[in-house]
Amino acid sequence: MSHNSLLNRSRGAASLQPLVLLAIIVVMIAAQAILVPGSLTVEQLLIISRQASALGIITLGQAAVILVGGIDLSVGATVMMVNIFCISAMQGSDANGPVGLLVCLLIGLGIGAVNAFGVLFLKIAPFVMTLCTTTICEGICYVYTQGSPTGSAAPFIRALGTGRLFGIPYSTLIWLALAAAMWAVLRFTALGRRLYAVGGSPRAARLSGIANVRVVAGAYIFCALMSTVAGLILTGYHNIASLTLAGDYSMNSLAAALIGGNAIEGGRGGVWGVVLGSFFMMLLMAILTMMGISQVGKLIIQGCIILAVVAAQQLWKKD
Amino acid sequence: MKKWIALLLSCTMLLTMVAGCGGTPAESQNPTGETGAAGETASQPSEPAAEKETYTVGFSNVWVGNTWGVQCVNELEAFLQNNDQISEYYIYNADNDVNKQISDIEDLIAKGVDMLILQPISAESVAAVVEEAYDAGIVVVDCTSPLSDVTDKYNVSVVARDYDFGYVGAKWLCEELGGEGNIVCLDGMAGLSSAVLRMEGAMDAFAEYPGINVIASEYANWDYATAKPVMENLLAAYDDIDGIWSSGGDMTRAAIEVWADSGREWIPMMGEDCNGFLKLWSEYKDDGLSCIATSLPTWLFAYGAELGLEILNGTYEGEKDIIVEIPTITNDQVDDYVRWDLSDSFWCGTRMSEEDIVALYGNGNDGSQGLTGEGVATDH
Predict the structure, then answer these.
(1) What is the pLDDT of residue A248?
(2) Cα–Cα distance list, B95 to A293, B278, B370, B377 (Å)
(3) Which of A47, A145, A244 sits opposite B232 (nearest CB)?
(4) pLDDT digits (tens, 9 = 90+) for A234-272
(5) Residue of A121, A239, A295 with shortest CB distance to B5
(6) Which among A186, A188, A232, B79 could bridge A192 via Cys, Cβ 3.0 to 4.6 Å?
(7) pTM for this structure?
(8) B146, burial (CB in 10 Å: exposed 0-12, middle 13-18, buried 19+)
(9) Chains A, B: CB contacts under 8 A, how many?
(10) Helix, strand, or coil (residue B219)
């Protein structure tokens, strides 16, 4: 009983932060309506949600890894590898779809397993381990494509990235569905409790009979699989193989998770804050673009606003 | 146990690395005069081939980091292979490393080449070794960036200017819009000289038309994936965009796709001459999309080699410093240039023969395998 209430407290602590973030997002949307008149439409918000969906899905995985006290810098490289090999395996035809998906699944599982192996068995710091995976994956992509990737996505992958259901982009729906599933797992299942327990205090978790290794390994593999899904969505959205698709996903997913109120030291955090955090990141970039602020100013403002939001989150955090 | 695993793992990694380094192919020669002569020549030597001398050519490249760089090398290699006056050639890539470029050029001098073609990474750093080559009697052909500020010991310099690239496209946009309208610019990469120069050219052209307003300018790194969300956001912000200027690369393709999704009336756009963009342009042309493709010619090195050969033959009568006019593709020409059968990474303003083009870019190839099939990035 007391065990349960302890866990509930760590889960409850983050519950106020998504609301703060939601309020900030509402203020930003209002600001956009005033600063760039006529730009605020449902369509525009849907487009931003589509832009945010890949980052959002990656951040779900990142959040799981952070929750167990780790960090995953290889998410961007996973996206890049899935993009290159998915297009290469499918050759623009639906007929090769199953093979392509299988290749992507294996890439995701492989990267997740390698990360988990390095962190858990070789005891390499997560930061270093996932950085190594990143460089190795990038190297493989460069060698494989000889520096100039080509090809386009299979039509069904293309639909995944650009299609809509009742006006809502598929990718947004997938993102929200995955978030809801993750929320349910964290909130209602024993697995969810174990994730919090391992992140909160690995020693205590081990002493109370939780198999830490399996939980942490699961988090890394989950994160790599989420990056795989994001990679497929991005491939469909852009319809090209590109060595630049990885973008800043590693850093941005960390930022989004922290903006969402998850604790970098692990053991604390929720799902909806993370979802809002990803949306916030893309909305901020969109608004700065719309306002026509120069590149330099944009970077500075972006940094300052993220700083302010995280600081606000810290003030609201209950200790 | 764990220590053993770690040790084993590090040993394996070290071994792979050593093996990888050892695998660098030795610089091989390419006696190709015979094989190349079988095919059509890319540019026809006008004189009779009876008592012609043959020459050895060396090329020191900066790098082949993108499809444009790949094709530049391919065009040069196609020219060299198809010309019966070339007995041997060497192509070295410096991978953006100044020291490697200097040692590459020294190596070429030692090999006794008759002509040295180079794309300098930095004029200052290669000046000394270029002078050494010139003093040794080698015909020095400089391409893409000028050497004239640091030395005059070269035979000919062939340059296409980024400024002109930006200017030509912008000028066309203004004319197309009748001198009035709101322009959105997709810029290259912040701080890179070619982006700055292209933008400078564009701004000078826009300044000639008082009715033209640049309402937004955003960096999108010449990259499709970056340009797409940027374009979506610009579209949300402005409902009065009349034209799109682009610094080239793969950004215009993203602009067209976003524009098609939005369902707005088509507006004039500028792009670079890559096949992926031309395909989209051709597809939407009949719906009212009007574009221009400017190009930084991929045949610049091949052209340099052609002039170098004329100098060797003693028939050259042109200037020492040549600035190439920027070639363009217009609405009525796009269908002649677009190649539906070739990959998106093909650059359409080519001078290669059909045979070479298909060998390099047909059947799903992207040209990076090179004419020798060993890959353009390897020194050969």
Answers:
(1) 82
(2) 35, 30, 17, 9
(3) A47
(4) 888 887 777 777 778 888 898 888 888 787 777 788 889
(5) A121
(6) A186
(7) 0.74
(8) middle
(9) 92
(10) strand
